Amino acid sequence: MGKADLHTHTIASDGAFSAEELLEKAAKKKLKIISITDHDTIKGYLNGKEKAKELNIELIPGVEVSAVWKEREIHVLIYCFDENDEGFRKMLFNQKKARISRMKRIVNLLQKQGLDITMDEVRAEAGPGNVGRPHAAAVLIHKGYVASVAEAFIRYLSTEKLGNVKTEYVTVKELVVIAKEAGGVLSLAHPGPLYTKDEIDELTSLGLDGIECIHPSHNFNLQRTFSKIAARDNLLVTGGSDFHGKGKKDYDPYFGIVTLGDQHVMSLKRMARRRREIIKTD
Ligand code: AMP
Ligand code: ZN
Ligand code: FE
Ligand code: FE
Q: How far apart are CA 104 and CA 159, in angstroms?
């Protein structure tokens, strides 16, 4: 096997490259295992299948789901799900709708601050992909309100600036049930500085299978802290670069550098296999 990156984005959400382009780049970086984990859509993963075969890259089914936990929006990575599972597909469809209604609320808030921005403009930035705040940031850049995505977040789009915009995202509790019924394995995305240790315990007790210990936002100390929690609680270790392409300058240089050892991918696949067997015999 070899080096793995289990956290990447494409134009199916807020990434800059198509799945095919991303996989070409991965091959150049000598990555052997990739998961395309677009926000709330598996289109990126589905689009990458053929190319992955051609390049002899193992493509792990993946998606990064925005979920509600204690009135906060958190990110959960799901791997190895059955892509045809009806409940899973329905959840993703609802997430897509929730993204649109949330973005309408965000656009309204920006308009109230006197900014000239419309939902149509944001949707045009997203193209066929799922809408997200980076697309609103792109509109603000084109209109000259800000010079970069980072500035757009600092001045307008962060949770601090927007407040907790109401969302209809799935709750973590619901997500655990839906994902596991589809044979999926769940990992808490980039816990970084987002949660206290107690909060991580609370979250993993809801039924998450792993922690994303390896991520560009984690320094060695954080990586070690999370790996220790994973070892203590018998949780999977996942990781990746969170590569978005030119959209996210702070993480992009780590593509091919922040990687996960294949022994962790083996464990992940083993857990997924067992879950499938349990579902079959139920
Ligand atoms: P959303 O999907 O609408 O919640 O937007 C979240 C996405 O915006 C994340 O996945 C990141 O790709 C991006 N993002 C979040 N915070 C920042 C930031 N401070 N600077 C640039 N991009 C960010
Ligand atoms: Zn993103
Ligand atoms: Fe994320
Ligand atoms: Fe991500």
A: 16
Q: Which two tokens stand for residue 70?
A: 């204690």
Closest among 140, 130, 195 to 162, alpha carbons compared: 140
Q: What is the DSSP letter of 7?
A: E
Phi, psi for 175 (deg, rounded to 5): -60, -40
pLDDT tens figures, 107-125: 999 999 999 999 999 999 9
Q: What is the DSSP string of 149-178?
A: HHHHIIIIISHHHH------PPBHHHHHHH
Which residue among 133, 159, 250 has the greatest number of ligand 1 atoms within 8 angstroms of its CB, and so is best to mutate?
133
Residue 38 Cβ contacting ligand 1 at under 6 Å: no
**What's the CA gap between 180 and 178, in Å, rounded?**
6
Q: Is the pLDDT of residue 1 over 70?
A: no
* AA identity, residue 55: L
Report CA dihedral (86, 87, 92, 97) to the nearest 10 degrees: 100
pTM of the full structure: 0.96
CA dihedral 202, 8, 220, 210 (to 10 degrees): 30
Ligand 2 centroid from CA 187, angstroms: 16
- Verify whether ligand 1 is closer than 6 Å to residue 129 (CB atom): no
CA of 278 to the centre of ligand 2 (A): 33
Q: Which ligand is nearest to the CA of 161?
A: 1
| Domains (range + CATH), the chain | 3-84+184-281 (3.20.20.140), 93-162 (1.10.150.650)
pLDDT tens digits along 236-262? 999 999 999 976 667 888 999 999 999
User: Could you give the angle at the alpha carbon of 74 between the alpha carbons of 41 and 169, nearest 5°?
Assistant: 55
